Structures are given as structure tokens and as C-alpha cells.
Amino acid sequence: MALRLPFILKKFRSIVSRDFPALIKAFIGINLISAPVTAGNNQKASIIHNGLKRTYNIHIPSSYNKSERIPLVMALHGRGSNGWGMIVLTHKGFNKLAERDGFIMVYPDGIELNWNDGRMDEEANDRAHSENIDDVGFISALIDTLIKDYNIDQKRVYVTGISNGAIMSYRLACELSHKITAIAPVDGNIPAELYPECSPVRPVSVLAINNTDDPLVPFKGGTIYGKFRNINLGKVLSVDESIEFWVNHNQCSSTPVVTVAPDLDPDDGTRVTIKQYLNNIDGTEVILYVVQGGGHTWPSGLQYLPARIIGKTSRDIDANEVIWSFFKKHSR
Predict the structure, then answer these.
(1) Which end of the chain is more exposed for a tag (fewer CB within 10 A), N or C?
(2) 154-167 residue pLDDT tens
């Protein structure tokens, strides 16, 4: 058996390199993907927080000038992924937008591929939840570091994320509303355990994108299951309840302006409805993109698993463009 081990390892690498989608490699931590550096300056960096080395990817646009204040966008990965996985999932779309419009893009890494997003996640036993890792403190410290090092405009700090990262975005809006201007969670709702304690000190504009046929994070709320429904990953509110919380907190109109996005790809099996709740006094808003027929996916992002497993990816909207267009409208 020992003599056959090199052959088996060689065969395994061959199969992984040939057949696994790039995102899955990133998700499961197999460091086999590489890609050319896009325009601008891309770095891997770290800070120490609570005695832990916390890492992140950062994209600095080629137009960067430290004498000028610049917006900051953070994108938080889902459970089992990392910052690089988020870059792959979004087809480097945020980096391209950062080059076009001049903002700094950061992709933080959770501890052992997870964020402590406020759920009771006892069955999964991931370190972020079991050790109550201070991810809110990490993101807060990272914002402070980036403000100091890159002259970030404190009035234009934004956070987006998918799944576990989306739920974490909601937690950050609850606990860091004095630092975060707006959030854009994709495929995530407010954790049931966090809801009673969510007391933002300021309004936070919210753009949420939720897919109705998400097989992991239930659109109507309830328990999240992982590993093909074998593990209880905690409970979340419904999409409507999550949106209602922020509509009330931001003192927006309870009656939304409803529009339907053009069906740009009739073959993708999805349609997108947009509900916009406005506060006409201070400009705060809450917007919900309902992707009818979509799965646990990032619109116009990588279809990282077959649709029969993870659901469909809408091609009618580009989540990167939608999110950045929303963010750049909002400043404190």
C-alpha cells in the first residue's frame, strides 16, 4: 500500500485539477488555484486581534492617492470558504469596479472558514461559534486599521457578504452602526438569537438579495441545515421579518415602491422583483431584491455547484453592480 501512495496522490491531484470548479477548491481549502493579478495592487495582509492572526485580501485601485479620502467595501465569504473564495465567486467583479470608480476592496477571512454571526451553531461545532470568536471586534479593528493606513472615508464604509457572511453583515449593522454606512447581505437573514439584542445606534441603509428557492437559508425563516440537512446550524428570521426590522429602524415608508427587473436571460429560470422602502427625510433606504426561482447563489456569479444541489443562479442582475451602485449613493 505504501508503494502505491505516490500514485494515488498523483491521481487525486489530477482529478481535482481537471474536474473541481475553482470555487470548490477555495471552499475546501485545496490551494491549487492561481490567477493573474488584476490591475491595481492586490495584497494579502493581516492584523493581530485578541491574540489571533487575522488575515484578509485587499485590492487597492491603481488610481489610489493617499492624500484623498477613499470609500471602503468589505465582502464576507460564506461558511466553508475564505476571502479568496469570495473573489472567485464574484468573478473579481468588485475589484474591477474598484478600478473603475476608485474604492478599496477588502475580503476578510473568518477563523477556520466561518464567521461568528450570532446564531446558536452548536451541532456544527465550528470554532467561530464554539469559541465565541470576536469577529465583530476583528472587523471593527480592521476598519480602524484601514482608515489609518489608507485614509478611508469614515462616512463611506460598506459591508456585503453571502450566506454566513450575509448573516454576519446583519450582525455588524446591529453592533457597528456607528462605523458602517450600509450593508448588502446576499442569501442571509437576521439570526433569531440576535434579533432581540439588535439595537443599532444609527440608521444603516440595507440592500438585501434573497433567492426564493434557496435550499440552505430558508426564505420564510426557520432552521438552517448544513451538510445535506444533517446538521442544525441555527435559526434565522424570514426575509420579510428581516426587512421589516430595518424598515422600522430606519423610519422608512412601510409601503414599498415595487418594480420588476428586465428578464435579461430568459433561460436562467429566474425573475427579479425589487421592493424599495424610502426615508424621504435623511435619504436612508431599504431595498429588497427577490430572486424568484434562484438558489443559494450570487446573481451573475459563479455557479459553484450544480443547480440540482444549490439552485439556480440568476443572470438578470449583476449583484456586484447592484450592490456597488447602492453603496455609492449613501454617505453619512
Answers:
(1) N
(2) 999 999 999 999 99
H or E segment and range at residue 22:
helix 22-28
- Please give the Cα distance from 195 to 314 (Å, whole number): 29
**Residue owning grid cell 495592487:** 41
Q: 17: pLDDT confidence band, cut at 50, 70 and 90?
A: very low
| One-letter amino acid of 36 | P
Residue 27, phi then psi, degrees to nearest 5: -60, -45
Distance from C-alpha of 166 to C-alpha of 296, rounded to nearest angstrom:
12
pTM of the full structure: 0.88
Average pLDDT, the chain: 89
- Rounded to an integer, what distance in angstroms lies between the CA atom of residue 245 and that of residue 188? 14
Q: Tell me the per-residue pLDDT of 199-213, one tens digit each, with 9 for 90 and over.
A: 999 999 999 999 999
Compute how many other C-beta atoms are within 10 angstroms of the C-beta atom of residue 216: 20
What is the pLDDT, as a whole number, of residue 122?
Answer: 58
Distance CA 256, CA 58 (A): 36
Q: Are 158 and 71 in contact (CB under 8 A)?
A: yes
- Give the integer Cα–Cα distance in Å for 246 and 284: 10
Query: What is the 3 state secondary structure string of 285-321?
Result: EEEEEEEECECCCCCCCCCCCCHHHHCECCCCCCHHH
Cα angle vertex 65, ends 64, 70, to 5°?
70
Chain Cα centroid distance, residue 127:
19
In contact, 43 and 57? CB cutoff 8 Å: yes
pLDDT (tens digit, 9 = 90+) per residue, 273-300?
A: 999 999 989 999 999 999 999 999 999 9
Chain segment 21-47, per-residue pLDDT in tens: 444 433 333 232 333 333 467 899 999
One-character DSSP codes across 229-270: TTEEEEEE--HHHHHHHHHHHTT--SS-EEEE---S-TTSS-
**Cβ atoms of 102 and 89 closer than 8 Å:** no
Smallest Cα–Cα separation from 189: which of 231, 243, 230? 243
For residue 10 the three cell numbers come to 498523483
